[in-house]
Automatic annotation (TrEMBL):
Pfam families documented for this protein: Glyco_hydro_43 (PF04616)
Family (UniProt): Belongs to the glycosyl hydrolase 43 family.
UniProt keyword ATP-binding present: no
PANTHER family named among the record's database cross-references: ENDO-1,4-BETA-XYLANASE, PUTATIVE (AFU_ORTHOLOGUE AFUA_2G04480)-RELATED
Site label Important for catalytic activity, responsible for pKa modulation of the active site Glu and correct orientation of both the proton donor and substrate, positions: 127
Protein name: Glycoside hydrolase
Gene Ontology MF terms: hydrolase activity, hydrolyzing O-glycosyl compounds
Signal peptide: none
InterPro entries, per database record: Glyco_hydro_43, Glyco_hydro_beta-prop_sf, Glycosyl_Hydrlase_43_Enz
Any one Gene Ontology BP term: xylan catabolic process
Xref: SUPFAM superfamilies: Arabinanase/levansucrase/invertase
Source species, domain of life: Bacteria
Amino acid sequence: MKTNSEVQIRDPYVVPMPEEGKYYLFGSTDANIWGKGTGFDVYVGTDLERWEGPFPVFRPGEDFFSEENFWAPEVYPYGGRYYMFATFRRRSNKLLGTAVLAADSLTGPFQLHSDGPVTPVDWPCLDGTLYVDEAGQPWMVFCHEWTQVLDGEICAVRLSADLREAVGEPVVLFRASEAPWVTRLDAKSTDAGDVFVTDGAFLHRAEDGTLLLLWASFHENRYALGFAVSASGHIEGPWVHEPEALFQADGGHGMLFRTFDGRLMLTIHSPNRTPNERPLFLPVAEQGGRLRLADK
């Protein structure tokens, strides 16, 4: 059994299973996520404080298309199975991309479902997240990385019904610099231009129907988490940014879920430094289609 202070994890993602009374905690679990990829593990707990595990849920075979940078697994129930959206660095061109894996159980084993990444082959992309719209159309929202465009983008692309491939061309939802709370990342900005980071997108439909998009970037060179609101209520936006970040204390890459007693909970990793990153669980309140951190 491990406590949160003992769990090294980035990009935490929680799947609550009320019928079991258990939470399944996924994330980037390699001790050095910047190097060779080992795979993904899951932790299982009942109170968001103590966890059994880690239990292996994915390990790559020798013919897997990537061998480094295994990041940000998100797991969704869909069509009677569980689908994992995760980021990997391709062997072929060394660009990051999000691929889809599948399993019959939350504890795996997850196996490659898509034909490699479903993000554009010539784009460096990461942190794909699944969104199913009002018509039942699945989308993947993902980050087009600053390493290619300098001003990082949040993009969306339709997926086939079986989640195996992208359908059509990606659309840009917004760029990082459009958010008032985002500042340039000094450590990466060069004569080529200022760098603005997009990271860790996640969609949330508020109780009043408002569509929100959480995402991470940097504020005064510290990792931070903010959100935007879709003015139309649809994935295409336009997206209106909150002026202030929701969390600014060196933490981000968040997602929202409901606890078994009905509370809305945000999980992020903090600090944003390896090997010190740990999962945080922060109660959140909805007010008029907006989010605020709530008292515990």
